[in-house]
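User: Is it possible to get a 3D structure for a protein together with its bound compound? The compound here is NAX. I've pasted both below.
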Amino acid sequence: TQAPVNVTVTGAAGQIGYALLFRIASGQLLGQDTPVKLRLLEIPQAVKAAEGTALELEDCAFPLLAGVDIFDDAKQAFEGVNVALLVGARPRTKGMERGDLLEANGGIFKPQGEAINAGAADDVKVLVVGNPANTNALIAQSHAPDVPAERFTAMTRLDHNRAIAQLAKKLGVAVSDVKKLTIWGNHSATQYPDIFHAEVGGKNAAEAVNDKAWLADEFIPRVAKRGAEIIEARGASSAASAANAAIDHVYDWVNGTPDGDWVSMGIPSDGSYGVPEGIISSFPVTCKNGKYEIVQGLQIDDFSRERIDASVRELTEERDAVKQLGLV
Ligand code: NAX
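Assistant: Yes, that's possible. Here is the predicted structure of the complex:
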């Protein structure tokens, strides 16, 4: 077996952290041949809770878990990190304006970006889960000039998985029959889940659905607002499904996507599909040998164009706002 991979998880004592850590330690993040060392980052008040989780991890006697260290200092937590899962963030509270939210998160993701820049391993891969995920990833990335920009990604895999599940349900097929679904844009209510290039049992999904009203009035808003639906039902935000999506995102990035399919990842735009270069926006990507590539050459019709543009506009506004705050 190989040397352990260092996986840093921020917000480790939170609800996603609790759903995530055991799956990482059991080998689901990187595969059954790869031992992992967990490095947990929390704020000082939550270190004790993280220590409790570490006791439980110990009690699982996971063969692949090579150790757990807990930190309240970002510099230490990211020392030697190979995979960084940035989950902890400042949530929006009542009466908070977008500017306040971005500023509060800048106070978290700027120093974490600096710490990654200072201490990460050469092959570091970063996934930002904490919201606003795309812009938090942009903030972290812009404070890590020595790390290739494309290593900073934001999670839209939960949206991707939600869309696959809703589409499969509508068509009465298995989720595994749905391929090439795409989430475009921001991980927010403006995101665009695109079924025009998706396939179901080898046939075009939009043609199989053949119901524009369902698409525009049910499917798209249901996927985009699923987070709120979960909060309403559960009394708490998505946790296990978010952790599952983080596992999927990193697993596929490291191990590759299957032939004939792709996944959605928030990544720094290279200008493809008219998305301004540099913003972190969701695209259809394939992964191979630890690298991702944007799927090129998809025809974008007016219906899709309008929705991609709206979500991208929101991202450029967020970028402009954090620029004004001096965070990027
Ligand atoms: P919790 O509030 O349960 O946990 C967050 C944890 O982060 C807390 O333990 C807190 O102490 C810690 N934390 C805060 N600041 C920190 C810092 N500077 N360094 C280290 N740790 C810090 O939230 P949870 O439900 O786990 O959600 C975490 C984040 O994921 C939230 O921002 C949430 O909005 C976001 N989500 C993103 C999703 C996505 O698809 N991209 C979906 C699920 C989720 O809503």
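The first strand starts at residue 5 and ends at 10. The CA atoms of residues 18 and 144 lie 28 Å apart.
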